[in-house]
Amino acid sequence: MRRSQILTLAGLGTLAGGIAAAVAVLLPWLPSPASREAGRIDFVFWFVTVICIVIFAIVIAALLYSIINFRAAPDDDSDGPPTHGHTGLEIWWTLIPTLLVTAIGVVSAIVLAKDDRVGKNYLHVNVTAQQFAWSFTYPSGKNMTTGVLRVPVNKSLLLTFTSKDVIHSFWVPQWGQKQDTVPGIHPTLHITPDKVGRYPIICTELCGLGHATMRTWAIVMTQAAFDKWLKGQSAATSSSNTAVSGKAVFTNNGCGACHTLSAAGATAKVGPDLDKLPQWATQAKQPLQQFVQTSITDPNAYVQPGFPKNVMPMTFKSLPKDQLDALVQYLIQSSKKG
Ligand code: CUA
Fold this sequence. Notes:
Blueprint: H1 3-26, H2 36-69, H3 87-116, E1 122-130, E2 133-138, E3 144-146, E4 149-152, E5 156-163, E6 168-172, E7 177-181, E8 188-191, E9 197-203, E10 215-221, H4 223-239, H5 246-252, E11 260-261, E12 266-267, H6 277-283, H7 288-297, H8 321-337
Parallel strand pairs: 1-5, 4-10
Antiparallel strand pairs: 1-2, 2-3, 5-8, 6-7, 6-9, 9-10, 11-12
Helix pairs in contact: 1-2, 2-3, 5-8, 7-8
Dinuclear copper ion binds near residues 203 and 207.
């Protein structure tokens, strides 16, 4: 090969690699990681991306060079010269990809093993998914349950998942991992949040009509703020055992993901507007209390005109009686106010 040919190839390769590198670096493809695991996953992503950019540059250089220099004349219908294989080239283009793919495999395996290592000192949270809400139970906080996930920063977090109905999937983009929640099994996910902040929790598996509304927040706090919050919440939980708060039942069961209820600050429109319950009960020709209770425990018995059947989950008939009563009273009082 002549010196000028090598220079042309190198120039084309640099151009192609430069454009690919700019597309990779300048566009925000990934959210900035907020967990140690996400940081490692990003490393694998960039490791693979750099390899891809180098190979892309070489391939594009050879392709463009060939298109420019070896193009047949428009009226040239003759066959090309016969060529044989090139043993040296074939050894190299087998050996190099083998080494690269093996390296990617080894790096990925190390990151997977590290990301799964929970260690001894971790916070355990049980995550329950149902159409169309998330709830979080803290075994270390007297099994207190919330609708927003609060966790301390820089501490291992072990999430154990339960689904009450269909397959959902837990995803916090900044934490870099997803986990399907599958009815009948209890998968786990290990995360070490390393930045204080507020991150969206998204259901990323199509789970029904309210799938898009199945969102909440993960709030990462300092250890001190978290301890204070957990202590306050679990004290409130144990002192209110005798008087269950209907609002807490509403929030923890995710009713606000589908319904509007001003008293709870809920504005969703998947299901009927709960501020207008007295009006709907009259329309259904049922006493208000009976109407509200049946709509929760047996949602298909009467469906509000204009809304489809089988969207309201059937799972609420398993609510403990005190919680159900509190919820019914809360809805009746809130809707009368509204
Ligand atoms: Cu739950 Cu989508």
